[in-house]
Amino acid sequence: MRSKCYAAFRQEPVLIIAAIAACLSCFLVPSSASYLSYIDLRVLCLLFCLMAVVAGLQSCRLFDVLAEKMLRGTHRLRTLVVILVLLPFFSAMLVTNDVALITFVPFAILILKTIGHQELMIQVIVLQTIAANLGSMDTPVGNPQNLFLYAHYDLSAPHFFLAMLPFSILSLVGLLAASLLVPKTAIQVSFPDFTTIPSRRKLAMYLGLFLLCLLSVFRVLPYGALTGIVLLALLLMDRNMLGKVNYSLLLTFVCFFIFAGNIGAMEQVRDFLSYLMGRSALLSSLLASQVISNVPASVLLAEFTQDWQGMLAGTNLGGLGTLIASLASLISFQFYAAQPDSKPLRYLLIFTLANIAGLILLVPLAIFL
Description:
The chain is mainly alpha-helical. It has one domain (61-196, 246-368). It is built from 19 helices and two strands. A two-stranded antiparallel ribbon has the order 1-2. Helix 4 (41-59) packs parallel to helix 12 (223-237), helix 7 (97-114) packs parallel to helix 18 and helix 9 runs parallel beside helix 16. The longest helix is centred in the C-terminal third of the chain and has 25 residues, at 344-368. The radius of gyration is 21 Å and the shape is globular. The N and C termini lie far apart (51 Å). The model has no long low-confidence stretch (mean pLDDT 86).
């Protein structure tokens, strides 16, 4: 029994912690009809639709085909690393940081093994991880906390993009500078097999659904209509994708909605958190992200401040730092640790130093703005 509980905790630590926190808070605030008002149904429906549609795009191998076409041929090693780092940076803006890393970290490992440069594996994977976490901050669909904050504060697309654009530009400059430390050695990249798109019909469907998701995020299409369209399309065309949705993330949101709602109903705790957020929403959310990760931090703290710019910057930059600051970072670490010649401690050291460098670069800009 103990081993099963331990295995469950290792697999879904954030969900289990969120569920325990929600249950404990229910003892402090008796359950009532007000609990229903805690749940942001719009965020849950949009998350469900985006996860299902992006999983469908992954199954069409679209990202693999595009990456292979970009990398095949003769390159300088430095150019190759720059491409491998920029792929998750830009793709995360549309398909989330998690999906970008799931797609491109194994791809980078394969490439580096093929060309015989495994010594660059830690450097490249760490830069890819930072790139995905920072690239995802520039759009509402780039990561779950952005989607939540965009809906919670009822932001407009121009306000969101303009608030995050300076950080994205500076992040891109920093990532390019770090990538340029790689030597210019000429290398040949080839793939034993050509990746193909298994069904162009399904690809067209998922691209259309993704466009509808964007329209719904930007409040052009009602989220209820989007949810119905996505469910109907999947049931008729590709019902297997319903099993690919990360339901644990949806449950995590529900638990933190309940926990945050109950915390907000407790006057003393509410006053204390309001005081902290009043001092600095940016630093409070950034520091909280280091301990509980940036998604739970955004749900918990957004209720106590109207400083949406501080919350956006704090939770997005808060993805830098510890390994759990952004749960997407764990994906990269697991891929690397599974390699037969991996050096996890060395990886964690370089990861931590690189993330600290990122914070040193970006936090002063956030404070200034």
